[in-house]
Amino acid sequence: MKRIILITCSARDFVIYRLGLMKALKNMGFEVIGIAPFDRYAQEIIDKGYRFIDLNINRKGINPVQDLILFLKMTKIYFSEKPIASINFTIKPIIYGTIAGWLAGIKIIDVITGLGYVFTERRGLLTKIVKVMYKISLIFSYRVIFQNKDDKEFFQEEKIVKKKKTELILSSGINVDYFKPMKKSRNKSISFLFIGRMLWDKGVKEFVESAAIIKRKYVEVKFNMIGWFDNGNPSCIPEEYIKNYMNKKIIVYLGDVNDVRQIIAENDIVVLPSYREGVPHSLLEAASMEKPIITTDIVGCREVVDNKINGLLVPVREIDKLVEAMIWMIEHPKERREMGKRGRKKIIKEFDEKLVVKKYLNLIIPIV
Fold first, then answer.
1. Nearest to 31 by CA among 6, 50, 55, 53
2. Is 70 exceeded by the pLDDT of residue 120?
3. The domain spanning residue 266 has which CATH number?
4. Cβ-contact 67, 40 below 8 angstroms
5. Are the beta carbons of 98 and 5 closer than 8 angstroms?
6. Structural domain for 66, as ranges
7. Which end of the chain is more exposed for a tag (fewer CB within 10 A), N or C?
8. How many CB atoms are closer than 10 A to CB 40?
9. What radius of gyration, in Å, describes the C-alpha atoms of the chain?
């Protein structure tokens, strides 16, 4: 049986973003192997009938010894498994996995899901090093997929990758039959929902501080948050920061939730004040369930939200503008419901998972 490998930094990514692609590849007769650090999500992948290989990937900066070991392990896996192709996601699987795959004679498809904290915060020397490493590794790629045109243009303008190798596939797609409109269980106070990792660059600070301002006037309005503390990410927020706002009764943190649909259904507006994205899956989920969105006017987010059509776009890190947008949503219930309906139509037309998977398969079929 021909094999295809998918590598990422977290098994969670397979469950949330890649199952549609994995299922399609399996249905075509491939043995699909997921590679990432082992966790509870890895067991879910195994239970669904896919092979899983545990690979320790440290995402905290560059450690020459650890990264050399990672590179050697990837090379060993490629030589032993002999896949026809490998689809690599996130920085280290792309940088080290691409060169390892080339050595093993394997076609590598790299997926730039977003530029991450290294580019968001412009971390000086580290950013320069990562750019050089990307430039070297992508020489050996078969194809490089970008999830938004801004990232694609950035890599081309910086001469990190040749244009002829690049492809644009907006997002990882969304299962519009799974994420469909659901009614609230009962009438409640209006509520805003943040969905995302607990990272500074996801705009957590802006969300909770805006909530604190709005609560002074609209006491009954609720502010809920779901997401996980990604401790492997340098931008991770201390848990005490969230607990402080919980203790002040400003926000309710609902934890890391596997199935977010019911929570999305019970809230009125989804908010993501992020600093930079690929194309945020949480916004695709929200829009697919007919929720209006408030997000930042940045790469990735504006692919999902057309300003004043299916949501509102606000400037990055400007709390006063975010507060203004939230108050508008509170005071315009009819308009926000219409925004939600237009959002689902947009998702079905542009981001249906079936459309995205088909584009991936069109890249893989010529390799076979």
1. 50
2. no
3. 3.40.50.2000
4. no
5. no
6. 3-172+353-364
7. N
8. 10
9. 21
* Residue found by looking up tokens 């000086």 in the block: 124
Spatial strand order in the sheet of 166-168: 51-54, 31-36, 3-7, 85-89, 107-112, 143-146, 166-168
| Mutual angle of helices 64-81 and 91-103, in 10-degree steps | 50
Question: What is the SS3 assignment for 251?
Answer: coil
Lowest pLDDT segment from 56-60, 70-74, 128-132, 173-177: 56-60
Average pLDDT over residues 282-311: 96
Lowest mean pLDDT across 27-36, 124-133, 210-219 = 124-133
Hunting for tokens 């989920």 — which residue is that? 285
Least confident of 27-36, 110-119, 167-176, 207-216: 110-119
Domain count, the chain: 2
Strand partners, 33: 5, 51
Compute the distance between CA of residue 268 and CA of residue 81 in angstroms, rounded to an integer. Answer: 48
Q: What values do phi and psi take at 280, rounded to 5?
A: -70, 125
> Do 206 and 163 have their domain in common?
no
Based on the domain organization, do 30 and 89 belong to the same domain? yes
Measure CA 108 to chain center: 21
